[in-house]
Structure formats: structure tokens, C-alpha cells
Specification:
seven-stranded antiparallel sheet
Amino acid sequence: MKPIRKQDFPVDQIRRFIEPGPIVLVSSAWKGERNIMTMGWHMVMEFSPSLIGCYIWEANYSREMIRRSRECVINVPTADLAEVVVDIGNCSGAEVDKFARFGLTTVEGEQVKAPLIAECFANLECRVVDTAMVRKYSLFILEVVKAHAPRRPKYPKTIHYRGDGQFMVAGDELNLRRRFRPEML
């Protein structure tokens, strides 16, 4: 291995190196209203129960729906929906029905009232289980109570935000299973 030559880098742009995972579409519903938001700031926090931390900005129209209903669905789109994902993030659910505008098919959840998006690869029905950090950090802790996904492909082509309007598609696999020790997580 060779050392990599580096230079100073702006700290407000480091997100391109550590974005946590795929861009997702979060659907929510409350008192006859429904919405979809595009979200990239989330993290797995626990395996069992399955907990996910999600940053939801206070100006986002979905935030109050999720806070009040205490549930949502994390829908995982693939690269073929990339333009729709960006367009959903560029408009407000306060002004438009995003399901209708983007021709997305809703599916009724089994555990939550928020709709699932049929065109997405996976749907994770979630309940809000901890709001202790919402006021200060806009961080919601969700428990996945039901998951829906096809068996194949095992690793879909998800999209990941790199900052500054740049995305990448999950690509080549690197199988290190022989070296991996899950107990060291």
C-alpha cells in the first residue's frame, strides 16, 4: 500500500466521503394527508429490534406528519427512479400530491397507516420509538416493524448522494466474507 498525498479540504463538504447509505423515500400519513420526502441522512442503530435513526429537518412538510402519527415507511428506490427521487425532493407536499404528480402506486401497510410505494425495491414499515433528540437535533429513532423486499437481486442498484447534486450507484461487490468477523461489529 502507498500513502495517499492529501491537501486541506473544506469541512462543510466532507459529506461526499461519509454519506451513510442509499437515498430513500419516506412516506407518511396523518389525518387524511399523505406525503413523500426524499431522505439521505439515516443510520442503522440496532439489529434487534431493528432501529434506524433519521434526520428530518424541521421545515420538512413530512416532519409533523411523522411526529404526530408516530409512524412512516422507508421506501428504498433503485437507480431507475433517480430522477423521480430528486424531483420529489425538489417540491413540497404542502403544495402538491407527490404520489399523483409522480405516478407512484400506493400499497396499504400491514403495520402502519402510511402508504408503501410499490415501485420501490424495499419497503420498511416503521414506528417512532424515541423522540428524545428530535427537538435538539431533529433525530427520530424508528423501529422497523415490518419489511417487504423481493429475494432478487440480493444487492439492488441503490443511489447514494455525494453532495453538490452528485450521486453514485451502488456498484461492484467486494466479497470479504472469508475475512469478516460479525462479532466484531
